[in-house]
């Protein structure tokens, strides 16, 4: 058995259900690699757990069907104050509320993995955020730093001098190397801050910042498993999962966030369910259009998630539409080659 296990796949492949089974069989704990499940109060919308599961929520982790899952509810969604503009401006300039970057994930995953190893358990990373998995395997330099719209909106409120001071604090070497033209260009300063913030890591495995425990190493191979199926098969499963979440209060969950003054623009930027439901609740589109657009976006998202398979050369793919795939997978995990 490898020291660490990764399960990656598109939406509706049953990644978490499989990870829970393997965790019970091999004494493991899960680390969620999902860029949206880190946010609090989006349990239904981001599909954190099956509605049939027994869930216990604790500070810093959940226990789902007897298995500990790390990586849920790490960040509070950003809110705006009553006197802010109605478009969902954040509560104050420079606030990092609601921001969780790939470097934040790497730090969190590294520290959590050490804790799991120390407790003599198997770390199982599970999720559908491809660039999280890629960064975990190959380091943050292996992925392009994606634009962070929430951070950009906050930075756009700052003066050029304030932007440069912020960059100087995060990455003094980069700030010093900029010519006068770049120093006076707010767009270049904002992008430099964005990159610096995502890359600001202390030495560690794959560029991961972590608090090391003496005698514990994160060196070693991962067993990486990919779940897949023909597109139409996954579309059907995703549509059923969408209907199930709608029936269990997904619209009401987003409505509650809006009532708590969570930024509508942030919800829109988060995409998929949050985007289309918040637009419906804001009166911009009908409920029927919101659901139809959401369904189409989820199908497109599934196709994009599948493109990451090519970026993981050691991945072992299993087609969940075929019989006996789970038996073959469990043989691989028990006796990797």
TrEMBL record:
Its cofactor is Mg(2+). Keywords: ATP-binding, Magnesium, Nucleotide-binding, Transferase, tRNA processing. GO terms for molecular function: ATP binding; tRNA dimethylallyltransferase activity. Residues 34-37 are annotated as: Interaction with substrate tRNA. One of its GO terms (biological process) is tRNA modification. The keyword tRNA processing applies. The keyword ATP-binding applies. ATP binds at residues 9-16. It is an enzyme of class 2 (transferase). It catalyses: adenosine(37) in tRNA + dimethylallyl diphosphate = N(6)-dimethylallyladenosine(37) in tRNA + diphosphate. Pfam families: IPPT, IPT. Substrate binds at residues 11-16. Its EC number is 2.5.1.75. The record marks 129, 152 as: Interaction with substrate tRNA. Belongs to the IPP transferase family. Catalyzes the transfer of a dimethylallyl group onto the adenine at position 37 in tRNAs that read codons beginning with uridine, leading to the formation of N6-(dimethylallyl)adenosine (i(6)A). This is tRNA dimethylallyltransferase. It comes from Candidatus Curtissbacteria bacterium RIFOXYA1_FULL_41_14. The gene is miaA.
């Amino acid at each position: 058995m490898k020291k660490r296990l990764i399960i990656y796949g598109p939406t509706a492949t049953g990644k978490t259900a499989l990870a829970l089974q393997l965790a019970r069989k091999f004494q493991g704990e899960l680390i969620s690699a999902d860029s949206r499940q880190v946010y609090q109060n989006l349990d239904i919308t981001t599909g954190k757990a099956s509605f049939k599961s027994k869930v216990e929520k604790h500070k810093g982790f959940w226990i789902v069907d007897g298995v500990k899952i790390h990586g849920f509810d790490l960040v509070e969604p950003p809110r705006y104050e009553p006197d802010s503009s109605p478009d969902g401006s954040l509560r104050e300039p420079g606030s990092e509320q609601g921001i969780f970057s790939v470097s934040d994930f790497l730090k969190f995953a590294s520290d959590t993995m050490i804790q799991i190893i120390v407790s003599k358990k198997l770390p199982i990373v599970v999720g559908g955020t491809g660039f999280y998995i890629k960064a975990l395997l190959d380091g943050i330099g292996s992925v392009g730093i994606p634009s962070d719209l929430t951070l950009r909106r906050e930075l756009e409120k700052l003066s050029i001098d304030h932007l440069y001071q912020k960059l100087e604090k995060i990455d003094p070497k980069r700030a010093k190397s900029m010519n006068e033209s770049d120093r006076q260009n707010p767009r270049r300063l904002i992008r430099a801050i964005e990159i610096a913030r995502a890359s600001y890591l202390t030495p560690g495995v794959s560029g991961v910042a972590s608090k090391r425990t003496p005698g514990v190493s994160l060196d070693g191979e991962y067993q990486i498993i990919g779940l897949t199926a023909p597109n139409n098969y996954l579309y059907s499963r995703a549509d059923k999962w969408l209907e199930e979440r709608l029936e269990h209060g997904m619209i009401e969950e987003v409505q509650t966030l809006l009532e708590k003054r969570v930024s509508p623009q942030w919800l829109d930027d988060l995409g998929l369910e949050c985007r289309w439901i918040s637009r419906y609740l804001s009166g911009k589109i009908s409920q029927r259009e919101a659901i139809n657009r959401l369904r189409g976006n989820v199908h497109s998202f599934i196709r994009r998630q599948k493109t990451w398979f090519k970026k993981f050369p050691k991945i072992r793919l299993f087609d969940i539409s075929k019989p006996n795939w789970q038996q073959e997978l469990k043989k691989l995990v028990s006796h990797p080659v």
